[in-house]
Every structure is written in C-alpha cells, then in structure tokens.
Amino acid sequence: MSEKGDVLVTVKDLCKNFGVTVALNHVDMEIHRGEIRGLIGENGSGKSTVTSIIAGIQPATSGEMFYKGKPWHPATSLEATQAGIGIIVQEMGTIPSITVAENIFLGNYEKFRVGPIISKRKMIAAAREALEKIGIMDIDPARVTGSYNMEQRKLIEIAKTMANDPEMFVVDETTTALSENGRELLYRLMRRAADDNKAVVFISHDLDEIMDKCDAVTVLRDGNIIGSLDKEAFDPDLIKKMMIGREIQGDYYRSDMDGYENQVVLKAENLTTMRDLLCFDIELHKGEILGIGGLSECGMHTLGRALYGLEDIVSGQVTLQQSGTRITTPEIAFQHGMGYVSKNRDQESLVMNGTIGVNIQSTGYKANRGLGIFISAKKEKQYAQLQVDSLAIKCNGIFQPVSALSGGNKQKVVFGKWLAADADILILDCPTRGVDIGVKAAMYQLINEMKHKGKSIVLISEELPELCGMSDRLIIMRNGEISGEFLRQDGYDNNKLIDCMI
Ligand SMILES: Nc1ncnc2c1ncn2[C@@H]1O[C@H](COP(=O)(O)OP(=O)(O)OP(=O)(O)O)[C@@H](O)[C@H]1O
Ligand SMILES: [Mg+2]
After folding, report:
1. What is the H or E stretch that residue 207 is in?
2. Cα(404)–Cα(361) distance, rounded to whole angstroms?
3. Atom 8, ligand 1: which residue's CA is nearest?
4. For 154, which DSSP code?
5. What confidence tens digit (pLDDT) does each residue in 240-285 have?
6. pLDDT for residue 250
7. What is the DSSP-derived secondary structure letter of residue 31?
C-alpha cells in the first residue's frame, strides 16, 4: 500500500539545454504522495521545463527520473497521462477547432469505438460526465472549444486532466487565468488529490497563494534547485531571497501621491457592449493611472477591450477628447497613440511564430522609418534591443522566436512592445500576470515613469494590492457597472473595496 509521504516521483541530476540556453542544471527533486508541492522561481528559472519533462511533453537532455520506484522516461504526454501523470499547462492546452469532448479525450478516442466507428454520442456523454465530476455544468461538450473564452477553456483542460484520475498532476500558472470560482474549484481538486494520497505540483508567482495552498515548496533559480521548505518553515522573505538571491524591499509600488491633470484624454459615454457593460461612463485624465478592479467576471476585461475598439458596441461611444476621434477599431486606437496589453496574451498580444524583434517592432514602423518610405533595419534593431535590455527579457537575442520564451518573458515582450511605442494612452489588462516579483517591481516603476511623463494609463487588475499601490483613482465594478470610486489621496480601505466587489 502506498502511504502519505512516500516518494511518488524522483528527478535526479536532470539537465535540459536549448541550444546555448541551460534551462535545467542538474536538478534533483522529489514529489511525495499526499502533498501539494509549490514550485516557485523567477521567470525563466525552469519551472515549466522541469514539469513538462516529468509530464512527457519534452525529453530531458540528460539525467534520470523515477515514478512509483521505476525508471520513468515518457516518450509522449499521452504516455504520461495514461500512466497517471497529468498537467495543466501554462499556455492554452486545448485545440480550438475541435469539440470540447474531443479535447477532453484527445488521443484516447479508441475507447469509444463501436464496431468500425468512434461513437460521438458516447464520447460526448463521457465528456459531460468528466465536466460534471469537477462541478462544471454550463459547458456543452458537443460545442467547438474555440467558442468558449479563456477561462472556460482552462476549465475544459482541468476536466481533461482530472478525467484520467491522475496519481499526480501539475498546475502550471493556471490560477491567473481563472476567476474566483474557477480558482476555488481548482484548489478543491488539488486538496482532494493530496488527501487521497496523490500528489500535486503547483506553480504560481503569487507567494501568498503558494504559502496558503501548498504543504511544501521548492525554489528554482536559473535552472538550479535552491532548496525546499516544508509548510512550518514558510517565510515570505526567506522564499523571496531564495528566488532572487538577494533581499528585496517589501514595498515595490509607487510611494508618491502626485495627482494628475484636469484634462480628459479619453472618454467613454453610455458605453454598452454586446456583453457585460451597461451604460458605462468613464473619464481618463492626462497623467492619470486609473485602476479598474472587481471580480474577474465583473466586466472589467470587456471594458478594457471596448476602450481599445475590440468589442461590439451596442450604444454609446469611446472618444479621444483632443481630436474628437471615435475609437471603433483597434487600428484607429493604435494610429492615435493608444496601446493595449491583453489578458489573453498568447492569442491577442503576440505573434507566436514571430521573433522577439518582430513582435516588439510591430509598434514601431513610424519610429523606425529611415529614408523615404523605407524602414531602417538598424533603428528597428535598436528599438527592440532597448526593451530586451531594460526589461531584462531572458533570451538569446531578438532573433529568438517568442514561442521559445518562458511565460513571464513573453509577457515582458508584450509590455516592451507598448513601452517602445511610447503610446500616450495605455490600456493594461493584468499586465503583471505570470511575471515574477522582481520584474513586477520594474514594471510598476515604468508605469509610474509613464505617468510622470504625462501618459495616461488604465490599469485593469485582479490584484487589489497592485491596484491600491498604483492607482490615482480606483473604480470597482460589479455586474458590468461601476459600484464604487475611490481616490488615492483618501487612502484605499480594503474592506470598502471588497464590499463594492461582491
Ligand atoms: N522551446 C524552447 N526553446 C528555447 N529556449 C527555451 C524553450 N523553452 C524554454 N526555454 C528557455 O528555458 C528557460 C526556462 O524556461 P521555463 O519556461 O521553464 O521558465 P519558467 O520558470 O516556467 O518561467 P515563467 O515563470 O516565466 O513561466 C528560459 O530561459 C527559456 O527561455
Ligand atoms: Mg513557466
């Protein structure tokens, strides 16, 4: 009989190189039955790499693994799934063009064979069961996956992972894609698995979340294991120090109380979209950081999209006050000095097969003009290189494809692209999502610098400390409407803010 505390997976002397990049450097790690093990470390430290090797997504360069006491070298993720190791990946792990049911049982269709055909009916029924098993009733397994939003697709992926009753599963930076309900659902599944003597590896940049949900934590830095702590020894300052290799000051938000100008730069009037927003009025001022908060489904993400011309508007309008330009498409927004960082990074903010350079340079065709109509290759290179340097994007150079970057480093590319554009108005939807604390601090500083240069920023976020730390003014939304408005100068009261959210 397997018991709580038994070693389930052992990773020994594991190395992984990507060309000249050393992603894992002689990593040793143990995962025990009955535990939720947190894995934490800066962007590019190797968290996704080590877990994806355990889960059969890619092979190691060298080293050994053991699973249930036997040598473990899965050739594919399907092999790992069938042996009881599942993973909810950091990126999108479902295929949009096939049905929910087909995603849930991807590679596993044989079990629905009836004579010469695969029974769709059976597969759909089984998929419905898999969804219901984790408490999801409102996703139709017969529908095409791409018709669901980012969060729902993550839930489909969770159902897929849980459908196989894994002995161990990895949750890679998933909670930032989920609303409160989705998070709670996932936490319950994690806890239940640990209680059943299974194991969970949980990856997150949210230290509080890690300390709250995990029984032990392992810290990675630059592909090296720095150490592990059991729950009794959890100490945020110690963990941060292990992650970064030096002490970092507690508070990294802006400390000034500088206000903003009276001039309104962007205005939404009576804004009503096909989904979420009801007669919304909002004004953004020059030099203002306007925070927008609320529960994930409150409509704030739709608001961000609508301000950038990305939503179908039923009535009302978004206008640039100086020129009177109406923002109806993202092209118009971009041409008039606006920028937008989407919460849905991979689908909406990056050209995945493009290089880092191509992605950053996409905002710079005006700035990088050389003679006549030609683009200066030299300027373009500098344009991108500057961002790579100032944001410390971990890469081999601007010619590396974005798809080869770690999640947080991809996010830095998106942020850098808009920094480079020197946009006057920035709509930032969860800009620090998946970004480690060191880079977060740098991003906050850059946002504050932009403010002080007279730029205007809408900061949409699910993290209250970030909103309170950065905003001049803070609007809380509930059910598509404003439920409260607060000013920095009055001091933000967490309880009042939360009251407005729920
Ligand atoms: N396919 C790839 N090709 C080249 N380099 C890669 C590839 N995948 C990962 N890397 C590199 O390996 C290192 C570790 O990346 P990994 O994705 O494991 O980081 P991470 O700890 O998950 O970071 P994050 O918190 O940003 O998700 C990074 O330097 C990354 O750029
Ligand atoms: Mg990662």
Report:
1. helix 207-213
2. 18
3. 404
4. H
5. 889 887 665 556 899 899 999 999 999 999 999 887 777 889 999 9
6. 56
7. E
Say which amino acid occupies 122: K
Ligand sitting nearest the alpha carbon of 61: 1
Q: Check: CB of residue 298 under 8 Å from CB of residue 277.
A: no
Domain 7-244: CATH superfamily is: P-loop containing nucleotide triphosphate hydrolases (3.40.50.300)
- The parts of the chain modelled with pLDDT lower than 50 are none
pTM value is 0.81
Residue pair 387/393 in contact (Cβ under 8 Å)? The answer is yes
Closest-CA residue to 26 (of 220, 224, 243, 219)? 224
Give the integer Cα–Cα distance in Å for 12 and 67: 11
The ligand minimizing its distance to the Cα of 413 is: 1
410 CA closest ligand 1 atom index: 26
Q: Quick check: 46 and 23 in contact, CB under 8 A?
A: yes
Distance in Å, CA 63 to ligand 2 centroid: 21
Query: What does CATH list as the number for 263-337+423-502?
Result: 3.40.50.300
> How far is residue 148's CA from residue 275's CA, in Å, rounded to a whole number?
14
Q: Could you say which DSSP state residue 401 is in?
A: B
Look at residues 168, 223, 309, 237 and name the one whose alpha carbon lies nearest to residue 25.
223
Tokens matching residue 271? 């804004």
CA pair distance 222, 42, nearest whole angstrom? 8
- Distance between CA atoms of residues 201 and 198, nearest Å: 11
Residues whose CB falls within 8 Å of the CB of residue 207, separated by 6 or more in sequence, listed in order: 40, 236, 239, 240, 437
Q: Which residues line ligand 1 (CB under 6 A)?
A: 18, 21, 23, 41, 43-49, 90, 173, 394, 404-409
Residues of the chain with CATH 3.40.50.300: 7-244, 263-337+423-502
**Distance (Å, whole) CA 15 – CA 11:** 10
Residue 191, token pair as written in the block: 């806890």
Instruction: Report residue 142: phi and psi, to 5°.
Output: -85, -10
Using CA atoms, how far apart are residues 453 and 287, in angstroms rounded to an integer? 7
Give the distance (Å) from ligand 2 centre to CA of residue 410.
10
Q: What angle do CA 8, 169, 208 make, to 5 degrees?
A: 105
